[in-house]
Amino acid sequence: MHTQKKTHNTMTYSDFHKFILFVFCLLTPLPRLLAQQNDCPLRLANVIKEYNEGTIDNVVSENVLQECLSKNKFTKEEEIEALKYLTLIYLYVNDNTNARKNMVEFMKARLKSNPEYDPRNTQAQPESGVPEFLEMYNNLKALPIYYVGLRAGASFAQVETTTNFSLDQSNITRGNYKPLLGYDVALSLEFPIGRAKRPFSLVSELVYQQKAYEYSDQILDFAGLTFTELQNQIAVPLLLKYHFKRHGYRKNDKNNETEIVNNTAQPVKERFKNKVQPFLVVGASASYLLYAQADLNRVDVLNDVAGGGSREPINGSYDLLAFSQREQLQIHLILGGGFRFRNFLKSGSDLLLEGRFNWGLTQQVIAVNRGANDDFIYKFGYIDSDFKLHNLSINISYIIPKYNPDKKKKGK
C-alpha cells in the first residue's frame, strides 16, 4: 500500500517577501497620484505669489486655475480667491473680456458668502488698490436684485363687535371674547427700491393663516354658552418696508476695542451693530376664507325654583361656510416692525424678527344669513353679532438674497 502525501498551501518566507514587494510597488505611485489630484491649493498659492511678484505671464499662458475651477477642486473660499486673482491678472494684461467674465463669477460667489463685501474698503486686499478693478465693480450691480424667504409665526385673533345681536337683551354688549393661538406660514419676495442705500423695499407674500377665538356668555341667566370659531385662509399681502440706518456702519470703535477676524482687526461693538437694522412695514392684504368651523357647548344651570342642578351639556360642530354665514373675501390693513439681522451667522442670508397687526376692514358675518342655522338659535340660544376680526402676529423670517452682478447699473 502506498501512502499519499498531503500537500499544504503554506507561504514560504521567500513568497512573503515577494508579496510585500508587490504591494509596495502597487502603492508607491498612490501618494504621487493623490498629490496630483489635490494640487489645486498649491496652484492657487503659486498664482498669488506670481501676481504679487509681477511675474504672471505663465498664469495667463498656461491657464493653471481653469481646470481646478471647472472640476470643482477648490473649497468655496479658494474658488472665490481664484476668481478674484484671475480677474486681477486679466485686467493686468488688458484682457477685459475674460476679466469681466471672472469678475461676474467672483461677485456672485463673494456676495453670497459676504453681502457686505466692498472692494473700496481699504481692508479688501489687494483689489482696493487696483483702479481698474474698482471701475469694473462700479459698473456691475453689487446689491441684491431680490430676496426670497420663508416666514412663520404665532398669531392671536382680536374680535371687534360693531353691532350687537342676542336672544337675550341685545341692547347691551354681551359676552366675552378671548383670543386663541393661531399661526402664519408664508413665502415671501422682497424687491429693494432704487439705488445706493435703498432704505425702501416692496414685499409680496403668499400666506396660509389660521385664526381662532372663543366667545362665552350666559343666556337668560341659566344657559352657559361657549362658542369657538376656527378659520383657515389664504392671504396675499403687499407691503412697503422702510429700513432705518444701521448705527456705526463703517465707523471706527471709539474705544479701539478690536478682535482678529480673518487676519484683520475689526471693532467688536461696531461690527455687531452693523448686523442689526430696525424696520417698519405698512400695507394691505386680501385674503380668501377656506374654512370656518364653529364648536358650541351649552350647559344649563337650573335655579332653586326648578329644583337646582344642571342638565347634560349640549355640543355641536358646524361648517359656517356651508350655511353661508361668513364673508370669504376679506381685506386687512397692516402695520408692523422689527429687526433685521444682516448676514446672519455669516450665512449670507438675513434673519428677521417682526411683529404685525392686521386691522380687519370686512364684516365677518353675512347679515342675510345670520339666522340660517336653526340649531344656533333653538338648540344653543346663540346668534351672531356683527364683528370684524383683527390679528396680532409675532414672526420669524429667513430670507436669501439673489444677485445678478452682470446687470449694469443705471447711472453711478
Describe the structure.
By secondary structure, the protein is an alpha+beta fold. The protein folds into two domains: about 35-140; about 145-400. It is about 25% helix and about 40% strand. The protein contains ten helices and eleven strands. The chain has helices spanning about 15-25, 30-35, 40-55, 55-60, 65-70, 75-90, 95-115, 130-140, 270-275, 375-380, and strands spanning about 145-165, 175-190, 200-220, 225-245, 260, 265, 275-300, 315-320, 330-340, 350-360, 385-400. An eight-stranded antiparallel barrel has the order 1-2-3-4-7-9-10-11. The protein is elongated. Residues about 1-5, about 30-35, about 250-265 and about 265-275 have low confidence and may be disordered.
Secondary structure topology:
Layout: H1 13-27, H2 29-37, H3 40-53, H4 57-62, H5 66-70, H6 76-92, H7 96-113, H8 131-138, E1 146-163, E2 176-192, E3 200-219, E4 223-243, E5 258-261, E6 264-267, H9 268-275, E7 276-300, E8 314-319, E9 329-341, E10 350-360, H10 374-379, E11 386-402
Helix pairs in contact: 3-6, 6-7
Return the average pLDDT rounded to an integer. Answer: 82
Relative strand content:
35-45%
Termini separation (Å)? Answer: 109 Å
Run of helices and strands? HHHHHHHHEEEEEEHEEEEHE
Shape: elongated
Radius of gyration: 35 Å
Task: Tell me the number of helical segments per DSSP (H or I, 4 or more residues long).
Answer: 10
Task: Determine the fraction of residues in helical runs and give it as a percent range.
Answer: 25-40%
Contiguous low-pLDDT stretches (5 residues minimum) are 1-7, 30-35, 249-263, 265-273
Number of strands: 11
- Main β-sheet, spatial strand arrangement: 1-2-3-4-7-9-10-11
Biggest beta-sheet profile: 8 strands, antiparallel, barrel
Structural classification: alpha+beta
